[in-house]
Amino acid sequence: MAKNNILGVILAGGKSKRFGEDKTKAKLGNKTLLEHTISKLEKNFKEILVIEKKKNVIQDKKNIFSTKDIIEGYLGPLVGVLSAMDWIKRNKKNYNWLATFPCDTPFFDENIIDKVKRCPNNSSKKLFFLKRKNRRHNIFGLWSLELKDILFQDINSGYRKVEEWANKVGSEIIEIKDKNDYSFLNINTKEDLQKAKKKLNEFI
């Protein structure tokens, strides 16, 4: 599989309920949370697509684009994935896969990107997720465009949770042996952001 057949996708369409405001714009150091993820992905993907609540967080530029969920009202990350697949088809992009990343996990190791991009080479699976220790990270995934129709049907049938849908269609796990407990620190609250700021200061 040619690595340039993969679109990098950032899922940033959540409600940020626990955070209390749009966390994509929250500052961590001199970058927003969204900018932290973009800076890692743009080194590794020809183009990046950001799935947003509203099409106003970023301005489209040469290799970074944005689009809203194609179904009104936030129904979870599966709709974000479907929206990315729809964007690829509508814009006649030559991608067979999309790699998804969260907008609120700024410390993930960039080395996992190449691991994600290589994972279908020796497998017939159409869906892959990262797993560290006993936790599967369902937003860090690789999705075949061949899943688009069944994903659309299943969302309309009521599927909302990534894990339940992945168990239905079948997936493969990519084991990550990362010794840093903060690598998958997910910022859901203001308290999480303060933890991230303390961790960032250790590198400054």
List keywords for this structure.
two-stranded antiparallel sheet; 9 strands; alpha/beta; 6 helices; 204 residues; Spore Coat Polysaccharide Biosynthesis Protein SpsA, Chain A; single chain; seven-stranded mixed sheet; globular
- As a percent range, the share of helical residues equals 25-40%
What is the fold-level CATH name, i.e. the topology? Spore Coat Polysaccharide Biosynthesis Protein SpsA, Chain A
CATH architecture: Alpha-Beta Complex
The poorly predicted ranges are none
Helix/strand structural class: alpha/beta
If strands are numbered along the chain, what order do they take across the biggest sheet?
5-4-1-6-8-7-9
Q: How many domains, in number, for the residues?
A: 1
- Say which CATH homologous superfamily is assigned: Spore Coat Polysaccharide Biosynthesis Protein SpsA, Chain A
**Beta-strand percentage range:** 15-25%
Annotation, overall tally of beta strands: 9
* Structural Rg: 16 Å
Shape: globular
How many strands, what sense, and barrel or not for the largest sheet?
7 strands, mixed
Average pLDDT metric: 87
Describe it for me?
- This protein has 204 residues and is of the alpha/beta class.
- It has a single domain, classed as Spore Coat Polysaccharide Biosynthesis Protein SpsA, Chain A, CATH 3.90.550.
- Helices cover 29% and strands 24% of the residues.
- It has helices at 33-41, 77-90, 111-118, 148-156, 162-169, 190-201; strands spanning 6-12, 27-28, 31-32, 48-52, 64-68, 97-102, 127-132, 135-144, 172-176.
- Strands 5-4-1-6-8-7-9 form a 7-stranded mixed beta sheet, with helices on both faces. Strands 2-3 form a two-stranded antiparallel ribbon.
- A hairpin with a 2-residue loop joins strand 7 (127-132) and strand 8 (135-144).
- Helix 2 packs across helix 4 (148-156).
- The longest helix is centred in the middle third of the chain and has 14 residues, at 77-90.
- The protein starts with 5 loop residues before the first strand and ends with a helix.
- The mean pLDDT is 87.
